[in-house]
Design goal:
CATH class of chain B: Alpha Beta
CATH architecture of chain B: 3-Layer(aba) Sandwich
Number of strands of chain A: 0
CATH superfamily of chain B: P-loop containing nucleotide triphosphate hydrolases
Distance between the termini of chain B: 22 Å
Number of domains of chain A: 1
Oligomer: heterodimer
Strand order of the largest sheet of chain B: 6-7-8-3-9-10
Shape of chain B: globular
Radius of gyration of chain B: 18 Å
């Protein structure tokens, strides 16, 4: 008999295949994944272009600010779409009343979560990569040119996105589709508190400790550091990643507890569309 | 008797199983075990606790008290060691509607570690008359076709223990008869152990060699169909079911009396 504690790549692959089949079968799903990031980037990008033109006399600082804004928009989309990619894949199981089939199969919760992470990356690749290329074409902002800094930003953001996705999935298991709106809305609290478009110093002092407890804050501060001071603050990235790991462990614990509570409450057989 | 078998060979042992929601007792206490190759009917009217019992055996509902062992493994702590030897079908569970039948079966075959996946799908499709539907979206099928697909999924890993929750619910008589005939043949050919929750007496009479009767979550009787007919002094199981459901006590030899 195989080691019961081992994670099976075959089962992870089966789940990834399941979501890939779904994406391939539905062009509206694929279109929607690109549509919103593109709209978001174009809106903010053209606004920034207008502001740069209006300032006229200070092209250098305006251009830097433009980079910070468009960069913020693109990184925000990585965060938001990363979480939604995770959560939407999970939601698909609830919409199709397939959760009991999965929980009764040899698929382990950890394998399910790894598959959702992989799908989050695949959906990001489909949805956000084309938009980063559009940002180069329309506004001359190349996120990829940030190199190692971009890699560090991505890692910190995606772990936070997965933590939120995992916790929301647990809440969905326990409370059913009545909690579905959390998938769409929960991450938006990060937009003001994660200081996506302005520095932490712009916020009231009492709010700043809360901001610094959120890993995305370190990324967006780091982005401004790279664009304005041309320095990658590794201390910020390491602190963000450390908080990320703590939050991910907490989200995994929360997911396990919520799954156990759903089993105790007997709600797993009652969920559906 | 199942108790004479080595623990690891007993497909299912349920001991003192209870499920309560607040002060409401949904099931229990309930004890029974299944012998290899048997088909046992879990019977009772609506709200008797059949689906809750199946849900607890599947691990989807946590028992308040009691234990469940499958092939000697405690389902509370070791379920992943035996889930590959089990499978189930329930009308309360669906499969992704947008995926084709073949895609769905392929995914579950991978989850259960089936070798020769395409060959297995082809054989099941032939057995269950699904060949012409294999490349159609599961959501476009009729109720009878969906039931056959769900059965194909339940049999994809050649389970030694098969849990069926009202497998012919909402099917027309012809399709229901076809499904019952298939299950009879499958049990005979594969020596598979089946636990079948139902309130369809014709189905139970045809398929089951033993019946566990529930009422409001409690065990009312546990015997073969012939023994039940004798105990209740009835000529068919429909009347026995009505006796149990309406609290009529013809049988003086009832379990516990």
């Amino acid at each position: 008999m195989s080691n019961p504690a081992a994670v099976s790549l075959g089962r992870v692959g089966a789940m990834v295949l399941r979501y890939t089949y779904l994406l391939r079968s539905s062009w509206p799903r694929l279109l929607e994944m690109i549509y919103w990031p593109a709209v978001q980037m174009l809106t903010w990008g053209f606004l920034q272009t207008y502001l740069v033109q209006a300032q006229g006399g200070a092209p250098n600082s305006a251009a830097i600010a433009a980079g910070a804004l468009i960069g913020g928009v693109l990184l925000w989309d990585i965060l938001l779409r990363g979480q939604q990619g995770f959560s939407f894949s999970f939601l698909e199981e609830m919409w199709s009343r397939n959760i009991p089939n999965l929980l009764m199969s040899p698929l382990r919760p950890a394998e399910f979560v790894v598959a959702l992470m992989v799908m989050s990356l695949i959906r990001l690749a489909v949805g956000v990569v084309p938009v980063t290329l559009m940002a180069i074409a329309f506004f001359g902002f190349n996120l990829w040119a940030l190199g190692i800094a971009f890699a560090a930003f991505f890692v910190v953001l995606i772990f936070f996105a997965w933590s939120v996705g995992l916790l929301v999935s647990g809440i969905l298991l326990r409370y059913g589709l009545g909690a579905e709106n959390l998938v769409w809305s929960l991450m938006f609290i990060i937009q003001p508190l994660g200081c996506v478009y302005y520095p932490v110093a712009a916020l009231p002092g009492w709010l700043q400790p809360i901001c610094w407890a959120l890993p995305p804050t370190y990324v967006f501060e780091g982005l401004r550091g790279v664009l304005l001071d041309h320095i990658l603050r590794t201390d910020l990235m390491l602190t963000g990643l450390a908080i990320d790991l703590l939050l991910f462990a907490g989200a995994a614990f929360g997911f396990a507890r919520l799954l156990a509570r759903a089993r105790r409450a007997g709600t797993l057989l009652q969920m559906g569309e | 008797m199942s108790s004479l078998l080595p623990a690891s060979n007993v497909p299912l042992t349920v001991e003192g199983l209870c499920k309560t929601y607040g002060k409401t007792v949904a099931v229990g206490p309930l004890s029974f075990s299944l012998t290899v190759g048997s088909t046992t009917g879990l019977l009772g009217g609506n709200g008797a606790g059949k689906t809750t019992t199946i849900g607890m055996i599947m691990g989807l509902i946590e028992p308040t008290r009691g234990s469940i062992h499958a092939f000697g493994h405690d389902m509370a702590h070791e379920r992943h060691q035996v889930l590959g030897r089990m499978n189930f079908e329930s009308p309360y569970v669906d499969m992704p509607n947008r995926l084709t039948v073949r895609q769905n079966l392929r995914i579950f075959a991978r989850l259960y570690g089936v070798t020769d996946i395409e060959g297995k799908i082809a054989r099941l499709a032939a057995d269950l008359a699904l060949v012409e539907f294999l490349d159609r979206p599961s959501g476009s099928l009729s109720a009878g076709q969906k039931t056959r697909v769900a059965l194909a999924k339940a049999l994809i890993n050649d389970p030694e223990l098969l849990l069926l929750d009202e497998p012919t619910a909402s099917l027309d008589p012809d399709t229901a008869d076809w499904v019952r005939a298939y299950l009879e043949a499958h049990r005979r050919d594969r020596n598979c152990t089946i636990l079948l929750a139902s309130h369809n007496m014709a189905e139970v009479e045809r398929l089951c060699d033993r019946m566990v009767m529930l009422k409001r979550g409690s065990l009312i009787d546990d015997a073969s169909p012939a023994e039940l007919l004798a105990r209740y002094g009835r000529s068919n199981l429909e009347d026995v079911f009505l006796d149990v459901a309406r609290g009529r006590m013809n049988g003086k030899n009832r379990v516990g009396s």
